[in-house]
Amino acid sequence: AGARGAGRPVRIAIVAKSLGNGFFNAVHLGGDQAAAAIASAGGNRIEVIFTGPTNTAAENQIDVINALIAQHVDAIAISANDPDALVPSCKRAMQRGIKVMAYDSSVAKEGRILYLADATDQQAGDACLDLAADACSGHGKVAILSATATSTNQNSWIAAMKADLPKHPGLDLVTVVYGDDLSDKSYREATALLQKYPDLAVIIAPSTVAITAAAKAVDDAGKTGKVFVTGLGLPSECAGAVEKGTIKSFAIWNPVDIGYAVVEIANTLVAGKGGPGSSITAGKLGPIAFDADGNGTLGKPTTYDKSDIAAAAKLF
Amino acid sequence: MQPILSLDGVAKSYGGVKALTSGALDLYCGQVTALLGENGAGKSTLVKIITGIVHADGGTITLDGKPVVIESAEHARSLGISAIFQEPVVFDALTVAENIFITGRPLKGRSVDWPTMMRRSREILAELDPSIDPAMVLGRLSVAQRHLVQIARALSNDARIVIMDEPTAALSHREAEELFAITRRLRDEGRAILFISHKFEEVFALCDRYAVFRDGAGVGQGTLQGMSSERLITLMVGRPVDQVFPKQVVAIGEEVLRVEALGRCLEYENVSFDVRRGEILGVYGLIGAGRSEVMHALFGTAPAETGRIVLNGETVSIRSAQQAIAHGIGLVPEDRQRQGAHLRLAIGDNITLPSLGRTTRGGFLSARREREQAAPLAEQLGVKMSGLRQRVEDLSGGNQQKVVIAKWLATAPRVLILDEPTKGIDVGAKAQVHRLMGELAAKGVAIIMVSSELPEVLGMADRIMVMRRGLVQGIVPRSEATPERIVKMATDA
Amino acid sequence: MPESFLRLLRTREAGLLGLNLLLLAAIAPFFPAFLRPGSLAGLLDDTALLILLALGEMLVLLTRGVDLSIAANLAFTGMVVALLDQYHPGLGLAPVLILSVLMGAALGAVNGLLVWRLRIPSIVVTLGTLSIYRGAVYLASGGRWVNSNQMSPQFLAFVRLQLGGVSMLSWIAIACAVLVALFLRRSVRGRDLYAAGNNPSAALYAGIDVGVMQFSAFLIAGAIAGLCGYLWVSRYAVAYTDVASGFELQVIAACVIGGVSISGGVGSVAGVVLGALFLGIIKNALPLVGVSPFFQMAVSGVVITGAVLINARGTQASALRILERRPA
Amino acid sequence: MSDVSLSARSKARVTRRPWHALVRWETLLVLAILVDFAINAHASPYFLDPWTLSDVTVSVAEKAVVALAMAFLVMAGEIDISVGGIIALASVSMGLVARAGLPLPLVVASGIATGLLAGCVNGALVTIGRVPSIVATIGTMTLFRGIAYAVLGDGVLKTYPPGFAWLGQGSVAGPVSFELVLFVALAAVAIVLRHATAFGRRVVATGSNPEASRMSGIATDRLRFALFVAVGTAAGLASVLLTSRLGSTRPSIAQGWELEIITMVILGGVAIEGGIGTIPGVVLAAILMGLVTFGLGLLNVPGIVMSVVTGTMLIVVVAVPAALRRYGGGRQ
Ligand SMILES: Nc1ncnc2c1ncn2[C@@H]1O[C@H](COP(=O)(O)OP(=O)(O)OP(=O)(O)O)[C@@H](O)[C@H]1O
Ligand SMILES: Nc1ncnc2c1ncn2[C@@H]1O[C@H](COP(=O)(O)OP(=O)(O)OP(=O)(O)O)[C@@H](O)[C@H]1O
Ligand SMILES: [Mg+2]
Ligand SMILES: [Mg+2]
């Protein structure tokens, strides 16, 4: 950061898991809002660089980080495709004076200064299970359709759900399958679930690709109203299924807020302040506390259903 | 009488290569016209022009007294022209019937009429070889049968003009005779026939007229009556050539190679013979008699399953070409383009390939040593080239064959197997190859020469082994060999 | 005709059919419901896209080419028609269908022209256009996804239309298979396609323009891929950059298992359909039979490798008989 | 292209020079590299920094190592689509060996040995099983990666011995990375092998006419087998570098690399049908691809758009000479 000449803006790079994902576009939007807010409050001029690979491969994200290092950006905020593989390049970025933080999906501790989680794993897991229990009135067979078998946050949410199952004695978790974040594979896996468990009540899909594919599969199988889909997804992508009734309700955190907080936090880091064990004020969002490992949480996920989906779908 | 087809001043170049400069040719109904010329004289190019496969750069073509431009193969067919090409035009994966009607399939509306195609194929094949089932996949036929299918194709569309580009190059005596009978019948039906061949005895036996090309230009045509082969050759090459096979008398030494009861499933069995220092063993038979297969067994590229090979008194096992080369055996294969030459590599690289061990040191190439190895051989064989770095692709067929022979001479073989060494090459090149065989024999090399040309076998070989359907019918010494006896052994059970 | 029936039994297609039935029989004890008509219709529905693409790929393989760009073509065309539908939902289905076929054909024609006019090996051409078309999806959409709620109802409904218990998607695949089979068996151009691939240099002498044949194959393959673009996007109700990424290799695998020779001139529609179904059965059965998701890929790998190995055994030329048959 | 105007005869003579084709293709590549270098330097103020230039090598050296071996295989008329799968499998085997607490040399050796064994499988399928290589390796691509998934599942292996990280991340001197040094050394070996040894001659001969090569005493099957093993080994080596650079192993690494590697080989002037090609060309193509993708990365152009650029480059580079040959009056 010392290399920054006078008058040059602070350049904060927001790296998405993959480009073209509505979630990250909303993060970008929030980041731009924060940059404008900071500037109008008389703070640094901030340039937000929004970038990322086109698919969710870790190597491609490394290439993106290398390019950002070469551009001497001031801060990198990343939603990691792989918590471990990115560590070496993130370390290198930090060696070259770049502040690295993670959001949404973490890089292992040694690869970043701070991690801003959307919500705690517990909160996400709880939300999914509660929604599932809600959909089937507390009794029935439940299956999980996840993204790739290697995606960190999905796996920790699934772990949280499994830990929480005793709280919902009526729910019977029959299996966990993986759609690899590919719509055709997710669709096929969902169809297989319907065939294999004819009395299935709920499919929990904690990924936006999976939840839409599962909803489509349930709909195509003519099981709307018999099998419910729930989980985590973007309002804009789930809107159709919610209208139809395939999805009664689902949850998601607010990506605009995440982007907003990311830029505020990164800006603080660039100024040489903040760090693990501190509390950073994220503008209008208020203070966010980071523990000694540098983990902080933005807040609980929000639940959407037929009543408020239309409004949310316009946003992200 | 007016010619049905007449070509004048026809020219064609490929890039910068002038294949034809002023081709001239007249074809008459009810006559067989022979087209003669050295390799590369432009004969096949002319055929391609007449059949619409390539377009002439200049000159005029007159059909029935009217000038025509032959646009495409389809157009040529509609004009009543059909051809048996020099290159095999066969489709292994298709049925015999489709191969016959590959151009002009019978149609019903716009869809292919399979039943008619089968029926007509069966009719045409009935007189050629009734044992061929038109529904069979062509790949399952023998070599001779494949030739018949191509002949059947030329007959299938009732053409007025039938062109045959070296149809006998790969045929044996008996099959050639069958073809001649058909050709005479076509002639008597009033068709015009163009017959291209390098074999003068065929030309004199079959043809009524001749036309000679030299270096892409027509240098004379007329009736064959009163012409001698000497005069034709002089026309072809512009100088007289010694056409007689220059058999050298060589003292025959001790046995070099002996095979005993070689056999391979379905292909041949109980094949035994020997060959001595300085001897040329001719191997004669009809196409598909299994001669090449036996040669591949000696060379290790298709090892025999039974029997043994004895080299210089020791039983050896030869299971690959490397082993054969290490034992001092060389093979000039029958299929020059596919098995013999690397067309896209330089002449020098071709010549040194089987003997790379000699020109490299510790696996490293040496341009100087390669040149020292290849240059004298290329010169000795009279390869017409611009240099050792020229690609073999750019050479004429005869010169390609010389390169293939040179590459085997470079290995200094003790036994040299030549499978159809003069197939499709012109008289001049042929004489050179024969002279070379004599010289090699004189140096003590044992030579096995597979040939389907009876005069060549009779002229060159010290002993002649005759094969028929995978079995050795006998080995005849030169002194006892007569054409009748050899042909009878090759054809009769 | 018992003899021609016997001959039919010995064909590769019959063997493949047997293999497919065997596979179904092996699955039955684990999961009997898989053999219910509804499940089988679902299997066909799920394999229809693979069948369609494999039919196009087969034409290219027959002419000794290979088309690596079909999946990218599918993604590009699919995205374009999805965007069209999103912004002009009132247009109805016909323009979407026409556009998808035409655009796919145009993308195929680019491949075909480069192969035909410039004689660039098809693997090189389609390796290049694979990247270009895939990138074009991103450029066309700005990386955005088009989701089901952004698609018009008729856009989504068409492929799901049920006729006689079978979806429209399956019917399209069946119709396409019949058309390609008729084209290859009955039309002059179809037969020329085989000849051109079987022996290109000989085809030249037979007056068959090998380049035009290659071009036609790419054109048709492209048109089919374009149609599949719409079908895919509509079936999975989503369009994004990575749609069907890497699918081209599965398509080639289906062709090869179906007996299409990579060196041209050999292959049949029946074989290709059975080859695609073979892969489809495996893909659909593995999750059902309860193979761990982590083992599914390895199992597919073993099966595909095994199938191509067995296939190669079958195609090896046997020795020509030279020796006369003698009474035993 | 000035030679179009030359008469065919003198052109034929010119093409006979062994280095001539090389000069033509390589000059084209060198020119493209210079142009791209200038564009990059102009477009991004950060480009002309030694550390940045060193980063260029990182994204490309691993693929280029495989491309060197792949070039030989393609010149011999074969192809290997399974290299991405081999890299994943080799990485898993290294991860397991490292987790067992074995020392660095054994970890590296296990990666390379896995690649070698995978190459043997491909080689055996092609030479013994007689499966066309493109078909065989489409199958093993799924097989190798599938085994990696079967072994590792959703796990990750990230306990590597100290010093392992240096292989993919360390530098030999200043900005000169170990990956770069290794690539340069391997390229030098490849150049000698291809252009100065009997082995190189045999590879080209086999590619240009396999049947005639077998008849000329070349053990073509053994040669092909060896080349598949070489490609597998190179993929194993690339896996060592990549795993070290990532510091961890997952079965999903190196997805889609096969197409990039093959693109590199073809861009380097190796004819896909075999028999033609030079190693300097492949090296230059690797540099060019590295520069282009990195330059675009500096401008934050998404990777998928880069693929449009590489795809176009590939076609243009092959199409322009083909078009000149065809429409510029040369012989077919
Ligand atoms: N496609 C081509 N490209 C370049 N040169 C060619 C081509 N075809 C033929 N030639 C050249 O044209 C010349 C005439 O060839 P052509 O095949 O017509 O000779 P030919 O008289 O039939 O010889 P042969 O008796 O050997 O069959 C030769 O020098 C040959 O190398
Ligand atoms: N139906 C066929 N399909 C493919 N190749 C064939 C077929 N028939 C024969 N051949 C090949 O053609 C060549 C000639 O056949 P074969 O070796 O049996 O006869 P031959 O006695 O050697 O005759 P010649 O040497 O005169 O050709 C061999 O290389 C053989 O493998
Ligand atoms: Mg000729
Ligand atoms: Mg023979």
From TrEMBL, chain B:
TM spans (from-to): none
GO cellular component: plasma membrane
Keyword Nucleotide-binding: yes
Molecular function per GO: ATP binding; ATP hydrolysis activity
UniProt keyword Membrane, yes or no: yes
InterPro entries: AAA+_ATPase, ABC_carbohydrate_import_ATPase, ABC_transporter-like_ATP-bd, ABC_transporter-like_CS, P-loop_NTPase
Annotated coiled-coil segments of the chain: none
Record membrane topology: Peripheral membrane protein
Pfam families per record: ABC_tran (PF00005)
Subcellular localization, as worded in the UniProt entry: Cell membrane
Keywords: ATP-binding, Cell membrane, Membrane, Nucleotide-binding, Repeat, Sugar transport, Translocase, Transport
Name of the protein this chain belongs to: Sugar ABC transporter ATP-binding protein
Lineage of the species this protein comes from: Bacteria, Pseudomonadati, Pseudomonadota, Alphaproteobacteria, Acetobacterales
From TrEMBL, chain C:
Entry keywords, A to Z: Cell inner membrane, Cell membrane, Membrane, Transmembrane, Transmembrane helix, Transport
InterPro entries per record: ABC_transp_permease
Molecular function, one GO term: transmembrane transporter activity
Entry's localization field: Cell membrane
Gene Ontology CC: plasma membrane
UniProt superkingdom: Bacteria
Pfam families for this protein: BPD_transp_2
Bilayer topology: Multi-pass membrane protein
Primary location class: membrane
Membrane-spanning ranges: 14-35, 47-63, 70-87, 93-116, 123-141, 161-184, 204-232, 264-282, 294-312
UniProt function note: Part of the ABC transporter complex LsrABCD involved in autoinducer 2 (AI-2) import. Probably responsible for the translocation of the substrate across the membrane.
Subunit structure of this chain's protein: The complex is composed of two ATP-binding proteins (LsrA), two transmembrane proteins (LsrC and LsrD) and a solute-binding protein (LsrB).
Protein name per the record: Autoinducer 2 import system permease protein LsrC
Biological source species: Lichenicoccus roseus
Organism classification: Bacteria, Pseudomonadati, Pseudomonadota, Alphaproteobacteria, Acetobacterales
From TrEMBL, chain D:
Membrane topology: Multi-pass membrane protein
Organism: Lichenicoccus roseus
Protein name: Autoinducer 2 import system permease protein LsrD
Statement: the UniProt record of this protein carries the keyword Transmembrane: yes
Transmembrane annotation, as ranges: 21-39, 51-74, 81-100, 106-126, 133-152, 172-193, 223-242, 304-324
UniProtKB keywords: Cell inner membrane, Cell membrane, Membrane, Transmembrane, Transmembrane helix, Transport
Domain of life, source organism: Bacteria
Known role: Part of the ABC transporter complex LsrABCD involved in autoinducer 2 (AI-2) import. Probably responsible for the translocation of the substrate across the membrane.
Assembly and interaction partners: The complex is composed of two ATP-binding proteins (LsrA), two transmembrane proteins (LsrC and LsrD) and a solute-binding protein (LsrB).
A molecular-function term among this protein's GO annotations: transmembrane transporter activity
Compartments where located: Cell membrane
UniProt GO cellular component terms: plasma membrane
Main location, first listed in the record: membrane
